[in-house]
Amino acid sequence: MAYREHGMWEILEVLRRVHAGEGRRSVARGTGRSRQAIARYIKRGRALGWEPGGPTEPDEALATRVAIALRPGPGTTPSGTSEIKLQQHLKQLRGWLDPPLGRPLTLAKVHILLAREGVEVSYSALYRFVRKHLDVGRCRTTVRMADCQAGEVAEVDFGYLGMIDDPATGRRRKLHALIVTLVHSRHQFVWTTHTQKIEDFIEGLEHAWDFFGGVVRRVILDNLKAGVTKADRYDPFFNRTFDQYANYRGFVIDACVVREPKQKPHVERQVPYVRENFFRGEEFMDRDDVQRRVEAWCVGRAGMRIHGTTRKQPFVEFEKFEQPALLPLDPPEHFDVPSWGEPKVHPDCHVRFENALYSAPFAYKGKQVTVRGDRWLVRIYYRGELLETHERKKPGQRSTNYAHYPPEKTDYAMRDPNRLIARARTCGTSIGRFTELLLAGDFPWAKLRQAQSLMRLTEKYGPARVDAACRRALAFDLINVRRVKTIVENALAGGEQDSAVVATVVQMPLRFEREPSSFRNNPPDTPNNPKEKSDGS
């Protein structure tokens, strides 16, 4: 006959009937217990200091002690054969199942390794041994956290819904859902997207705050790459853009520990709920159609259901308690999601950012800078210092501030003759006039290099000598920078002093062996040169 264990209340009923003087046969008929079982209850009760009909009536404590004494079990019996065998390998078992570094082995693998070493024990005996001595395999104790205040916490999670047609690409694509659940009321918002990039993440949160009409004070999320750059139990590194967005909206980021979904339980179970109760079995045209219908579903079906835990309607609780407690949307404009880059400044004083070029000061050539680009502007930083702000350009375009070039390169890069002429006039009157004549014509930028060479002569020999050389060259219409350089060098080689350099140049009269009239195209009639007749005779 199989053993049947009786609880404390059944034993207490038997002891009370016996204590009142009722016979064992009558007690057996009234309680359904056998007379042998009743005899065991009385025997154990007497061993614990109780006597039928005595001054002490049986109570719950006595009945509990009797039940424990009658409960079968090994008690303090000596260890069995398996216990003795495994006790000799306790240290080795600890190294396998609880290593200081690395992943532990499974209990099934440990059972195989023990068999290889000749330790033949059953799997159940091994399981009981490691639970007793190594605290392995025990269920973890869980506790319920205290309820949060209205408008305090929102839990966020991404989940996969299924495949859907994408008219933009003409093919079927994966569709993900960003679910935002308000912990206090359990009201939720779903944002559908094809990707899980930082832009999609922030855009979904912005629409969630619009949907709720306010912002919570703390957002709990797992370690998705769009929000957390480096996971850490105590001090995680957040994505730079998401951190700026949190400051923009005024909430605190609370990242869960890696592989601990129980730290955001309110949204974790909503992923299969949205997929199974909303998405599956329905037909949608595209992602926009899904988004329109899921927002109505969040308010209607999901918002008006009786929640399994709170036993209340989430949308009703949200309107009554949580919506007034949310932080206002200040500013109301959506966050302009920036993009970041860390390029180097090229030798041409430009950086490449998202296939467009932006200039940076030439002093930072070859250095790595940080570039932040938003919808309208691009900012260039070096070690936190703002170097330049540019207007956002399309791929393939360029934004250049010519002041970033070295001074000697600026005029040539700008291809501006007037700028170079004005600079030459500051060095001397003749230099300015020489440069003006040099850059005259329909294609002045073809001689910009020569004009720059003239400026370098002023730096090398001084403006006074070069101005005098230009004055001498102008007197002979020698608009050639190389000849100006020769004049300066010959003057220095001959020991010419500054006073000589600035001497007045006198134009001598020109003399020719022929008369000036001989240089005409149609010379007049002369006795020595008769005019030909028109008839050809």
Strand content: 5-15%
Give the C-level CATH assignment of the largest domain. Alpha Beta
CATH architectural designation of the largest domain: 2-Layer Sandwich
Helical/strand content category: alpha+beta
CATH fold naming of the largest domain:
Nucleotidyltransferase, domain 5
Average pLDDT, rounded to a whole number, is 83
Number of strands: 14
Alpha carbon gap, first and last residue: 160 Å
Estimated helix fraction: 40-55%
Low-confidence stretches: 497-503, 532-537
Q: Any idea how many domains?
A: 5
Walk me through what this model shows.
It is a single chain. By secondary structure, the chain is an alpha+beta fold. It has five domains: 8-70; 81-133, no CATH class; 153-325, Ribonuclease H-like superfamily/Ribonuclease H (Nucleotidyltransferase, domain 5, 2-Layer Sandwich); 339-404, no CATH class; 407-501, no CATH class. It has 22 helices and 14 strands. The strands form four sheets. The chain has a five-stranded mixed β-sheet with strand order 3-2-1-4-7, with helices on both faces. It has a four-stranded antiparallel β-sheet with strand order 8-11-12-13, with no helix packed on it. A three-stranded mixed β-sheet has the order 9-10-14, with no helix packed on it. The longest helix has 15 residues, at 198-212.
